[in-house]
Write a structure and sequence with these properties.
Blueprint: E1 8-17, H1 26-31, H2 37-41, E2 44-48, E3 52-56, E4 61-65, E5 68-73, H3 79-92, E6 98-110, H4 114-124, E7 142-147, E8 154-162, E9 169-179, H5 188-215
Helix pairs in contact: 3-5
Amino acid sequence: MSELKPELEGIYVVLIGSFNPQIFQPLWFSKEGLIQEPEAQKAEVQVIAPEAAVFSIGWMQLEVTHERFAATTNQPQYFDALRDLVLGVFKLLRHTPIKHLGINKLEHFRSSSEKEWHRIGHLLAPKEPWKGLLEEPGMRKVQMLGIRSDGFRGRISVTVEPSVKVKPGVFFGVNDHFEIEESEDVRSCERMVEILGKAWQDSLARAEKITRGIMKI
């Protein structure tokens, strides 16, 4: 079988904790050497306020509230750069309380035909139990949850549903979720940085294994 590649893909890193949104301005990122000065000058700023900060610099979008930090890119060549950006931010802001870390991989695969597209839905969500209950039942969304086997606290969840961007196509969302030990609150940010650095490549490889495994069924 030829190599399976998504037509569209992206990744976003989410942190749940306690943040000061006003810190996260393009010029601050530039001053600290996290992005280039021209990127900061050309940044598209939607809002910088006490309640939220939202801006993009072309390859990356950032959204920060008091409880949530999310950095996103839809350009595969910048996946590792996104990781490095998040690591750089919280090595500087090392006293930030962090409770949860999520590495989220999003992929849209085009099906070779509508028949193939339906076949995936039939395999993941068999229609036999619905006969006589629904007319022409179809899969809308399947979610699966798995435990971690790498020694970290947390879980792995996978969402599969029809793609709204690639038709006919299948969307996969793999959420690699990490929890910080309550006893580590005093160094929760340092622990998050450690986990993100160590788990990044394994997380991306795991997401690829899951999505290709389903697509090859």
